[in-house]
Prior knowledge:
Largest sheet: 5 strands, parallel
CATH topology of the largest domain: Rossmann fold
Strand content: 5-15%
Strand order of the largest sheet: 5-4-1-6-7
Structural class: alpha/beta
Number of strands: 7
Helix content: 40-55%
Distance between the termini: 24 Å
Amino acid sequence: MSIPTVRAVVLDFGGVILHVGDLQKHVALAQELGIPVETLHKEVFDGPLSVAAQRGEISAQALWEALAQQWGLPPEKAEWLGLRFWEGIRIDYELINWLRRLRPRYCTGLLSNAWDDLRSMLQKLDIADAFDTMVISAEERLMKPQPEIYHRLLERLGVEPAQAVFVDDRLENVHAARDLGFRTVHYRRHDQAMAELRNLGVG
Length: 203
């Protein structure tokens, strides 16, 4: 029995394309807020307000307003808080450019547990064009590792699970994809992920 040909490459966003770049900027912001930098990261990436935004229950703007209030800032400082946080973030443009070069041999996709402003953020960053399909949890009202969000991705890409490679930094999301029949890469570092993608014949 032959192994199906890979036709699609799908990346997660946070932890794969987006990373903490300048930790000192976050340390400085946390000091201004009077909280540990670990608390800053946990609340923005995984806290209950962030998860509500990832589920589409609140907007990204409402998230920053609630975090501002939580940390003793007036509501009008919410935009400032968000901007200050993103100053410490890095985008892996090398990975984005690699993804662009895969087309038209492969379909490319994004599958991300993210807030409702991700699509516009990618357009502002001028990287939205790297993806043929974007499936974003806040828009779908579904989150990885729920199987249905993976099925929606496959339907929009027009491929079977075995024809898709999925890259994510969170093991629970990788395992969910693998259980559905995807080929998977657990992202830990850029060079490690690229090596595993090459081993799968992608590139």
